[in-house]
Structures are given as C-alpha cells and as structure tokens.
Design a protein that fits this description.
Layout: E1 2-3, H1 14-22, H2 36-50, E2 59-62, H3 65-75, E3 83-86, H4 93-100, E4 104-107, E5 117-123, H5 135-147, E6 151-155, H6 173-176, E7 183-188, E8 201-205, H7 207-220, H8 226-236, H9 240-262, E9 266-268, E10 275-279, H10 284-293, E11 297-298, E12 300-301, H11 306-318
Parallel strand pairs: 1-11, 3-4, 3-5, 5-6, 6-7
Antiparallel strand pairs: 2-8, 7-8, 9-10, 10-12
The structure holds pyridoxal-5'-phosphate.
Length: about 325
C-alpha cells in the first residue's frame, strides 16, 4: 500500500481527454506564451475560483509547476550566491531550483530574518504538512518583501483542496491589495484535474516578472504542447470534475484520518491539501518502519484508490 507519493490515481476526466484528442493534429510550434484562449481560461479560473483578478497577459503557462519551480530562479537570472528562502519543511524542488541557479537556499518560515534575500517561496496549502498560511501572515510577508525589493512566489497547487480551512491566494486583494507587483502565484492542474501526466502549470501575477520570464523562455522553450493547451482550457472551464475529485479526496482523508488517530497517532496541520502530517511522538524513521512492517509505505498521501485506502485502514485497525 503506497501512500508515499502524491501522484493522482483517478482517471483524467473524459471532457479533458476529448479536448486533448481533438487537438491531436498539431504540426506547428506552440508559442511560449500559450494560446490567447488558454491565458484567458487561466485568468477566468483565477477570477471565478479564487477571486483573483489578473490580465491574461500576466499569465504564463508552463509544462508542469515542478518544471516552473525548478527553472524560475535560473530563468530570472538571479545572481549566483543570491539567497532564496524556502519553507522550513518543503517540497524539494524549491531548493533544487535555487541550487541549479547557483543560489543559496535558506529553509525558514521567517523570511524577514534573512538578510539580503532575493526570492521567497511560500507554499500554501503546504506539502507535506498540509498547513495553510493565514491571510494576515501572507500580507506581512508581502509588505516586508515589497519594502525590501524581494520577489515572493507562492506555490498554490493545492489551493482548491481546503478541508478545515479555506486557503487564500497570495494574489487575493486581502493579501496584496489591488496590485500584484513583487508577487507571483504558481498553479497546477495535476491534482485538481488528475492531469499530472499531461504536464501543465502556470504562473500569474507581477506583469513585469511574467514578461521577463516570457522573454527568456522565448529562447529557452518549455512550450506547452498544443493538445495539452486545449486540454487545459477544457479543465479550467469545468468546475464539476473538481468538485467530484474533492469529494473523493475528502472521503479518503476521513478514512485515513480516523484510522491514524485510532492507531494512536496525532495529526498536526493537514487543514488542506493531499497529505496527513501524523506523528507517534517518536523519531519519524521508527514510525515509517512501523508502517512498513504492515506493508504500508508513507508519507501519508491521500492519493491512493478507495480500495487501497480501505485496506490501509484495515491494517491499521488490526495493529
Ligand atoms: C507543493 C508542490 N508543488 C508542485 C508540485 C508539482 O506539481 P506539477 O509539476 O505536477 O504541477 C507538487 C507535486 O506533488 C507539489 O507537491
């Protein structure tokens, strides 16, 4: 029972597959900026789902948010040795992207404590803790960053998967006012639309920074394949499949949360996203070994089928 990797296991919705198939004849190069209707779809989804208002020209698509995260420090031409702040407990790609650009990753949840920071990554809802940054805290970080000429980029790939809390985008007016200067958000369709195999993500926010990224990418590439652009337009235009997928994860989360707490574990954070951040109040490798003895590989991700989740719960209950 593999709960160790957050990879979607449910089918890509049929309307998205159909859009991909219908666009299979694609002899020409796609543009780096993406189709106008794709950028409009991203902008429309941000407005409809997150109450975030950006012009389509302040959106830039890419082949997956992992690739965007890994490449942004280099694409922005950050000076080697620059300090890139990443969350204390974080998805590894923030550090890898910084290192690839010759920068120094600094892991802390207090970016204000870092002298000479150039870029700050936030991740809310977070992987792997499922923590959600309060609006007030994000607003403080943005205000500090603007005052110190630091770019803040928030990875929001789990933003539609809020359980106990409603996550808010860094681009929302309650966080950054009615301007997006110095602020970007990274989004992904991988989890909300079961589209991880297609590779699609986008950045949106500060028009100037988006323009800088576009200018470099015109020659560095990472263009989104045309059929995937059409699939993304279909995915961004439909809310129903997202609601259905949310309910699947909500059910799995409930079963796993109950099974873990019944087995004596404490769950911290985990208010949103695809992970349960659980502890048996012992060194974590001991806990991982305890799970392994029962044939369960962790971290505790919700991305397993209903049958596997039920089996995990049964094994934990037998323990
Ligand atoms: C926090 C976080 N950001 C980004 C990604 C990458 O997603 P993708 O490249 O599929 O858009 C993941 C994948 O698990 C993730 O957990």
């Amino acid at each position: 029972m593999d709960l160790s990797v957050g990879t979607p296991v449910d089918p890509t919705p049929e309307l998205i597959q159909a859009a991909l198939r219908a666009a299979a004849n694609a002899p020409g190069y796609p543009t780096v900026a993406g189709r106008d209707d794709l950028r409009a779809a991203c902008s429309g989804w941000l407005a409809r789902s997150l109450d975030v208002h950006v012009e389509p020209s302040a959106v830039l698509p890419g082949i997956g948010s992992k690739e965007l995260i890994a490449s942004i420090p280099r694409m922005l031409g950050l000076d080697p040795g620059s300090r890139v702040v990443i969350p204390r407990i974080a998805y590894p790609t923030y550090a890898v992207g910084a290192l690839l650009a010759g920068c120094e990753p600094i892991a802390t949840d207090e970016p204000e404590s870092v002298d000479d920071a150039t870029l700050v990554w936030l991740n809310s809802p977070g992987n792997p803790t499922g923590s959600v940054l309060p609006v007030q805290r994000m607003a403080e970080i943005v205000a500090w960053a603007r005052a110190n000429d630091v770019l803040v980029i928030s990875d929001e790939c789990y933003i539609e998967l809020g359980w106990d809390l409603e996550p808010v985008s860094i681009l929302h007016p309650s966080v950054c006012g009615d301007r997006h200067d110095g602020v970007l958000a990274v989004h992904s369709l991988s989890k909300r639309s079961n589209l991880a195999g297609y590779r699609f993500g986008f950045v949106a926010g500060d028009q100037q920074v988006v323009g800088d990224l576009l200018a470099v990418r015109k020659h560095a590439g990472m263009m989104v394949p045309t059929p995937v652009q059409f699939a993304a337009i279909a995915a961004l235009g439909d809310d129903e499949h997202v609601a259905e997928q949310r309910e699947r994860y909500r059910g799995r989360r409930e079963i796993l949360r109950t099974a873990l707490t019944d087995a004596g574990m404490r769950i911290d954070d985990s208010a949103a996203g695809l992970y349960l951040w659980a502890t048996r109040s012992e060194p974590c490798w001991d806990t991982v070994a305890w799970f392994a003895d029962r044939g369960i590989v962790v971290t505790v991700a919700l991305t397993a089928t209903d049958a596997q989740v039920a089996e995990v719960a049964a094994r934990l209950s037998a323990a």
